[in-house]
Amino acid sequence: MDGARETGAVTAARAGIAGATTGAALELRGVTKMFGALAAISDVTMTVRPGERRAVLGSNGAGKTTLFNCVTGDFLPTSGTIRLFGEDVSAFPAHERIRRGLRRTYQISLLFTGLSVADNVYLACRGVSRGRFSLLRPRKGDPLLTRSLELVEAVHLTPHRDQLVSELSYGQQRQLEIALALAGAPRFILFDEPAAGLSPTERRELVAILTGLPSHMGFVIIEHDMDVALRVAESVTMMHNGRVFKEGTPAEIENDAEVQELYLGGGHHG
Questions:
Q1: Angle CA(236)–CA(183)–CA(56) in degrees, nearest 5?
Q2: pTM, whole model, 2 decimals?
Q3: In the chain, what are the domains?
Q4: What letters, b where the CB count within 10 A reaches 16 and e where it falls short, cover 163-183?
Q5: Which element (helix H / strand E) includes 127?
Q6: Does 8 have pLDDT greater than 50?
């Protein structure tokens, strides 16, 4: 290959890599997960852009959490491909996906209840840092300490930063879990029913936190509370019986007659 052709090939290759990286934050193609003869999800195809906020909705048993488990690596898909910022991660274990900027919250909070709010967030920041195996105590001015306090503030828990997690309300514990998911500058987050069990006041706090996340940070949220989901998302995917049923904007989904019949009892008014 002569120099001109080689330069052109290299340029094209780099353009292709850049296009794959910037074209989609999360790309699913034909993702299926079988448990024996049962298809929990079947032929799911979805593309989420960098910075996009997507809600995945559906009744219980629609396959939403199984879909999350496949994206995060808790389950490996039976077939299909999962790409994260252009890279095929379909066969990657969960920790390799975390290293590439993926984070997730769970329906049940996983926290150190005997430690303070600030200590929980610091450990999360430490856990995704290069010095995570160091036995040295953090010094004053440690950038991870600074970052952990910034995250405590981002989830509106600064007044409680020295409080034991066991003393927090349930809603405050869910806020703390979001702070843990933000540790290590994630590129993309999956929120699994963050509003479950929250009071109306706590749900308003949750909406403020999610809408206040940096604009470059995309996320997908599973949520049964339609008011929360439609307020924080710019696009919606409806699932039914393990398949994608409808996609559209919050307004389109809210006003869709089939969606209202299947999921909203004939109508929904925000």
A1: 10
A2: 0.82
A3: 25-101+187-270 (3.40.50.300), 111-186 (no CATH)
A4: eebeebeebbbbbbbbbbbbb
A5: helix 117-127
A6: no
